[in-house]
Amino acid sequence: MNSDSDLQIAGDILEVQHLLQPAREHPSTVSEFVGLARSIAADRARWAGLVRYDTTTRWYHRLQTGPGYEVWLLSWVPGQGSGRHDHGRSAGVLTVLEGELTEHTKRGSQSLGAGTQRAFAPGYVHEVVNDSLEPAVSLHIYYPGLTEMPMHAAQCAPTAVDVVPA
Question: Which of 2, 10, 109, 124 is the 20 to 30 A CA-CA neighbour of 30?
């Protein structure tokens, strides 16, 4: 027995592989989807060369898929918006990569600058607009993958949470 502690560890704990949790190949929790979005955002070389700007419609590109989820890259020129909508049975994470977007909900409007993330539950109603004078780029992860995007005329109560940038 050690006088400083009743607990002693013999050897290197990292040598005991069966005690370590393997890293997941694909995310399965909100936290892991937020982390995936942050890692993609940090890897500018992965997405920057794909971005296109279209003055007639919002541009989008499916960047990645995995079991039960999709990752989309979107660009927004000044004045473009999504219209008030929800994401059906899909939850998600929105990450602003470049520029600034404005999110409108029943509770009001919020500016979303580069690095801002929003995690939202199924049925979350919002409208996203580029109210700035510069283009913007955003990353969207939907789980399960997006199969519907119902449009709304009236505002509904939001159920999103802010994610503090790391």
Answer: 109
